[in-house]
Design goal:
Quinone Oxidoreductase, Chain A, domain 1; Rossmann fold; 2 domains; binds NADPH dihydro-nicotinamide-adenine-dinucleotide phosphate; 2-alkenal reductase [NAD(P)H] activity; 15-oxoprostaglandin 13-reductase [NAD(P)+] activity; ADH_N_2; acetylation
């Protein structure tokens, strides 16, 4: 089998030479274990963000969809399609009893679950709109923002895996949705195909000016995927009792973690507007993932949620796909077909 190993900590943008592709022998199957052939691998921002949380060298983790090719676990016969966190490898062995979706311990990303019936949709959605990113959008927006019909919602990273689903859920809930993304093409897609009320290319507009015009009555909910200065500006436009769901801060992931980020003065907005600002990790709702998955599949079936993927083909292209995603090449979920 083959896998990607991270040999040294990333500095700035991850380099190809930070990785090594390693050939290795898989152990013979023991009772309770399954052999999984990888079909689809996810490349995500947290692969960059979590880099220093793990001692190097480590196997590159990520979610993946695979198919059981050999089994000594009766509940997971040959042919079962599964979602795991086995990362960038072409084959893997899992002891099913030792990992489960409701494991919320330190190693909470260590999961295996059967991909539900996607009713003819691509199994790759199991790591996208009906997988971890879609579930992040579902709980991170609905639980933390508690949106009400008629409210104004702002989403950053709006054309990405999580953001594009958040915006569509906000429309389903009857909100006015404003998105920020990094290209004119993405803006067009958000407005013309996903039904965003307004979208802007944050690279070419003054965020404060366009937001004031697009949300003259202020912002009630903000789903923050990027952090940084754009977030400070948006939080400054919030209404009283506004809610901010802090999902990610990708604008800082390639920064040197030993240097303190420049402080931004948010406190006056938070105090005088009595804002609720809450961070989360999607595994907080590990026991409720099936509920989100069922609802997301339902919305896709009914045409309310349009999933989109940015597909790269080939095990050897995993690094390029990862760097491309960090640079904003993707519309929707970046996935790699193995
Ligand atoms: P995306 O599909 O959104 O891909 C990343 C996108 O980030 C790029 O396409 C790019 O789009 C944008 N980006 C890159 N650099 C910057 C920058 N400096 N400023 C603004 N935007 C930038 O990724 P995901 O949907 O998978 O993840 C979105 C966010 O959600 C990330 O911050 C991630 O860490 C977080 N997340 C958090 C989870 C949680 O449990 N809290 C779970 C899953 C994701 P563009 O062209 O618009 O710049």
């Amino acid at each position: 089998a083959r896998k990607y190993v991270v040999k040294k900590y990333f500095e700035g943008v991850p380099k190809r030479s930070d990785y090594e592709i390693v050939d290795y022998e898989l152990p013979p199957l023991q009772d309770g274990e399954v052999l999984i052939k990888t079909e689809w691998v996810s490349v995500d921002p947290y692969l960059r963000a979590y880099n220093r949380n793990v001692p190097v060298p480590y196997d590159q983790f990520s979610y993946q969809v695979g198919i059981v090719e050999d089994s000594k676990c009766p509940g997971y016969p040959v042919g079962t399609r599964v979602v795991t966190h086995n990362g960038w490898c072409d084959y893997s062995v899992v002891n099913v009893a030792k990992v489960s979706v409701s494991n919320t311990s330190e190693n909470s990303l260590n999961v295996i679950y059967k991909l539900p019936d996607l009713k003819g949709l691509s199994p790759s959605l199991g790591i996208g709109a009906v997988g971890m990113p879609g579930i992040t959008a579902y709980f991170g927006f609905l639980e933390i923002c508690q949106p009400k019909a008629g409210e104004t919602v702002v989403v950053t990273g709006a054309a990405g895996a999580v953001g594009s689903v958040v915006g569509q859920i906000a429309k389903i809930k009857g909100c006015k949705v404003i998105g920020f993304a990094g290209s004119d093409d993405k803006v067009k897609w958000l407005e013309e195909e996903l039904g965003f009320d307004k979208a802007f290319n944050y690279k070419t507009v003054d965020v404060k000016t366009v937001l004031k015009a697009a949300a003259p009555n202020g912002v009630d909910c903000y789903f923050d995927n990027v952090g940084g200065e754009m977030s400070s500006v948006i939080i400054g436009q919030m209404n009283k009792f506004g809610r901010v769901s802090v999902c990610g801060s990708i604008s800082a992931y390639n920064e040197d973690p030993t240097k303190m980020p420049k402080a931004t003065i948010l406190q006056p907005s938070i105090i005088f507007k009595e804002l609720k600002i809450e961070g989360f990790i999607v595994t907080r709702w590990a026991n409720r993932w099936p509920e989100a998955i069922a609802q997301l599949i339902g919305w896709i079936q009914s045409g309310h949620l349009k999933p989109k993927e940015h597909v790269t083909v080939g095990f050897d292209k995993l690094y390029d796909a990862f760097i491309g995603m960090l640079a904003g090449e993707n519309k929707g979920k970046a996935v790699v077909q193995i």
